[in-house]
From TrEMBL:
InterPro entries linked: AhpC/TSA (IPR000866), DUF4369 (IPR025380), Thioredoxin-like_sf (IPR036249), Thioredoxin_CS (IPR017937), Thioredoxin_domain (IPR013766), Thioredoxin_ResA/DsbE_sf (IPR050553)
Signal peptide bounds: none
Organism: Flavobacterium rhizophilum
Keyword Disulfide bond set for record: yes
Superkingdom, natural source: Bacteria
Coiled-coil intervals, chain numbering: none
Protein's name in the database: TlpA disulfide reductase family protein
Main location group: other
Keywords in alphabetical order: Cytochrome c-type biogenesis, Disulfide bond, Redox-active center
Subcellular location: Cell envelope
Amino acid sequence: MKKIFVITLTVLAIMSFKGLDLVGNEFKIVGTVNSDFNGQKVYLAKTITEEVMSKLDSTIVKNGKFTFSGVSDKPEQRLIYFEEKRMDGQIAVYAEKGNITVNVNAEDISKSVVGGTINNNALAKLNTILVEVGNKELAFKNEHMDNFAKAKEEGDTETQNRIVEEYSKLTKEYNKTYIAFIEENPNSVICVELFPIILRDQNVKAKDLKPVYDKMGPEPKATEMGQKIETYLNQMLANEKAMEATEVGKTAPDFSATTPNGKTLSLKEAKGKVTIIDFWASWCGPCRKENPNVVAMYNELHGKGLNIIGVSLDKDDAKWKGAIEKDNLTWQHISNLQGWDEPIAKQYGVTSIPATVILDKNGVIVARDLRGEELKAKVKELLAE
């Protein structure tokens, strides 16, 4: 996201530039600057890393003007900077087909105005939004951060939770603004850069965000970021559907896989009066740390009707079997040995381990992701029914 935020954080005006006849994928950048800059060398560059730029072209300011031209098969972000003013900042611009204008702010390079083509015009609108968001972020920090730090020091969870909730509401407000921008500028490659920001909100649902992505034009979707976002949203969507199918109150869908001794075992065959589906792996530290508690509970309550079926996200058969033996996990186990591609984990929407799904005597899911004493208390409650 560095790409967006190095760009001018100001309300940008859109300028038109006429009279330049371009062909094919040619672009022309015409800059206007204070005459005090006459004779200065100005560069067109691209970012290699956050600290390193690669110079692509250079020219000299004459009569308050400078010009760059070239060919760009697709929109690519470039940086413009003056040799004698490099430390004062750079001007971000999208090199793309068309006539691009740069109105340099001599007092503050970062507040220069770029426009003229689809992505540079969209960038202007987005920067206006980013200024507003930045101001709200600063105001929120000034109003709440000291109180939050004090509440945390004093163990005042009520105040902490209230501030977190207020910030969550602010985040949702930002996301609505970002989504509106995407819908208003569907053909701009800048849109895809906003999805990672929106996805920082853990409450965002792919079922709401995927239609927004689908409405974008082919060019932003074809970018590397666009492809990554599509893959991620599809994964999220599949997980959300799995979670809905295995939420509390639903009958647990059956599954089967191979046991350590090479046989096939299904959930139906492994059920007890109370059944725990335990998702774990030999390489999962928290899982291994929790295993002694689960062993103690199982030894105490198995005779009363508790069954456990372990579903491992291992890939290494020997390590899987070795962990079962070392941790004395005497209940039933299965695995497809596919790691995070474990189909049963995907079927149940499991994206982190350890994870548990607790079933009653009828195979209905009554709880998820309980551990320790909370898990044991729930099992005892169900066994007493």
